[in-house]
Amino acid sequence: MPHLRRWWILGVLCTVLLVISVDNMILNLAVPSLMRDLGSTPADVQWILDAYILVFAGFLITAGSLSDRFGRRRFLIMGLTILGTASVLATLAETTRTTPAPRQPACGPR
Q: For residue 38, what is the enclosing H or E element?
């Protein structure tokens, strides 16, 4: 039984990695649309990409530490829910300044 459980855990973690990779790929593929539809400059788009990566890394370390204390499954589900909600909200952005807002607390080019 434990052997089968390991395969299920591996499958879940691979699926989560796929979701995160697809989210990052979508963000990178959206660069031309961001520049065209939102009137973003290359500096604005670079800020959006860098802010996303920086905040993601910070939350990854924090969530890893908290999940060790309070339960990995709970934080995995909560993280995927937050990622999905933030991705949907980011699609509703109408300006460059509001594009990264759902994905990080401090947003917009300074």
A: none
- pTM passes above 0.70: no
Q: Give the Cα-Cα-Cα angle 72, 26, 77 (nearest 5 degrees).
A: 15
For 26-82, what is the HEC assignment? HHHHCHHHHHHHCCCCHHHHHHHHHHHHHHHHHHHHHHHHHHHHHCHHHHHHHHHHH
Categorize the per-residue pLDDT at 109 as very low, low, confident or very high, splitting at 50, 70 and 90.
very low
Contacts of 47 (CB under 8 A, 6+ apart): 100, 109
* Type of residue numbered 63: A
Q: What share of the chain is helix, strand, coil (3-state, %, to 5)?
A: 80, 0, 20
14-22 long-range contacts (CB < 8 A, ≥24 apart) are: 16/76, 16/80, 19/80, 19/83, 20/83
Query: Token digits for 53?
Result: 């990566």
